[in-house]
Amino acid sequence: MNHNHPRTGPLTIIVLVFPGVRLLDVTGPIEVFASADEFGGRYRVRVVSEDGAAVITSAGTRIGADLAVDDVREPYDVLVVPGGPEWETAIKDDTLLDAVRRLHGMARCTASVCTGAFLLAAAGLLRGRRAVTHWRQSRQLAVRFPSVRVQPDALFVRDGPMMTSAGVSAGIDLSLALVEEHFGAEVARAVAKDMVVFMQRPGGQSQFSVRSQVPYSRQETLRPVLDAVVANPGAPHTLAAMSRRADVSVRHMSRLFDEELGTTPARYVERVRLEAAQVLLETGDDPLPVVARRTGFGSAESLRRAFVRHLRVTPGAFRTSFRTTGTGTVTGTRVDTDTAMANTEQDRQA
To answer: Is 114 a catalytic residue?
Structure first.
């Protein structure tokens, strides 16, 4: 447990809600802390809104509040600031930002979920700090708040008393990390098993967003080249081959990739191949050497190196941890991180 303060009573968690907040950003962390109470944790969760009234979430569901912001007058343990799809409107709400600052001033730790990082940044609480948000908004966070050191591939980040997390489910990862800090790994592990989630997910956000991170090109010359790579990742997509397809010089092709996508042809091809390999691992039973050949990596070792470099997880661990199960006589089962990572040696031997 964190010994920065004595455990004389339950730890208090304040969850700030506001109109348009995302429902799972709120309920995910609350479920983690409530479940922890069943396994040795001691939490008191309070939902706080600006005036103490219920709010309507982005899903149209009403969430009641226990307290108004002004009712919180004593120091407490953790402030959770959720996000919402209308974050661009939220960061212009001076009253909401004042509430974030006030509540932060009494919290030992302040944590955001998903686009809640924008509220912390707009309130001036992330200056010079490392932070993360949902991968779709990572660039926006970096551009709007250049003093924030955005970590685009992390699931959650801690920098001093500030914690930020990625997409909505990463709020659960962050909350489990807090439970472990407060009450130890055994309690956090019990909560993870009870909720049928990973205590620590292997990999980062990029495993969910590879193709979406590639911008759409308006260049008529480049679009067919990009489409050809996606259509057949296993083909020999060398720089020379792509240049011949577009009928341009190698130098011009490299410049187009840099200007349009901010990357090199080789890196683009590898990322597309990586995504194709992920799909095959999730949906099929082909051995790793076959997956490697079909996706253009050539060998299982090259495939393994690409997975570790980009996703920080081996292909075998990825297959075990992230593939879906079919319906029928086989039931969906959770495989814990230890089981997933045990495939590392199999990857090396493939």
So the answer is: yes
